[in-house]
């Protein structure tokens, strides 16, 4: 039995089914551990966001494209987004059919666009030059256009995808030119989509974006669907008491807007959202091992095997993840003081948590990095020729399933 120190009170039920030390000894460290019931619960919350009947949730698989999790998302009735042929390929392997996938392309080659067209997958283009390309490849076809309504939101400048300072989507002032391209290739505009950015915690900006897109949508007569994008945030700072996004409030306001639009649009219309993080983030704790503790010029460091090759978010965006400690011995956890938790990569920016208030860690302790299910494994790499970790699923029936094996040294030579 291990001992747990957690900054998050009122739990910890995540590891009911299996102990961190047992998991690490069986599957290696670091290790992405997912909880099936949390993942399914998040899928259902999104499915039930509104009462509007033709409402679809496209899971944005860039957050986490593990095949087993994709199959579960599909079982829960989620459709899928794809950002690349690779994502389409994996979605098809998980059982998604062409009518269940929306390809939200960005600066793709002809071959990449054709990959979706050949499969009958709906393509969203995000520039007029790519609309031209689509028209050349698929004259007379149906297409979707990604629109930048000028509304943007997100937890960091690098993930705000709407507004005046982003490469994404079509500026509505170019709509006359867009209509001309549609006409010249006999294309029908089946859908409009947008994505304002990743991680908002208040409904305001999202609903502002929804209304802005719908105002533009009224000027097109034949739309089949409108897709408002993802961005639904989760509270990463639970230990500090950060509240959850009020989905019930967001859902009821969104519902009213959708019914209103549908009443006045004049034809049956479907609506979509594209959550990634909300579905996957909280279903995962990333486990790692403490291998060294040291003091450098008065600064205390906890050295772990969770480098930024394993979890890139803190390095790229200074993102916060709450951290727990598990201990096999009976040594009690000490008082709390600030330490910097780092990985094993040869860069000084390889920092998981700076000046985090924790008990003194010991060699052999396990750390648990919470809410690591979105943009965790999917952004991991082999930098420093390190092996990407395994992923395991704590199933609802109490069993543990390996859902992706850990890289092997041979994998490092696979492409030579
Ligand atoms: C086009 C598009 N849709 C959906 C998402 C999913 O975003 P999130 O994980 O914040 O829900 C992203 C990523 O930000 C995206 O680029
Ligand atoms: N990778 C970002 C989110 C970007 C989503 C892709 N548009 C994160 O970890 O927060």
Estimate what percentage of residues fall within beta strands. 15-25%
Annotation, overall tally of beta strands: 18
Number of helices: 11
| Sheet of most strands | 10 strands, mixed
Q: What is the CATH superfamily label of the largest domain?
A: Alanine racemase
End-to-end separation: 44 Å
Radius of gyration: 23 Å
Structural class, please? alpha/beta
What count of structural domains?
Answer: 2
Helix content: 25-40%
What is the ordering of alpha helices and beta strands?
Answer: EHEHEHEHEHEHEHEHEHEHEEHEEEEEE
Basic shape: elongated
Give the names of the bound compounds. pyridoxal-5'-phosphate, lysine
Low-confidence stretches: none
Feature tags:
8-stranded parallel β-barrel, 18 strands, 416 residues, 11 helices, binds lysine, 24% strand, alpha/beta, Lyase, Ornithine Decarboxylase, Chain A, domain 1
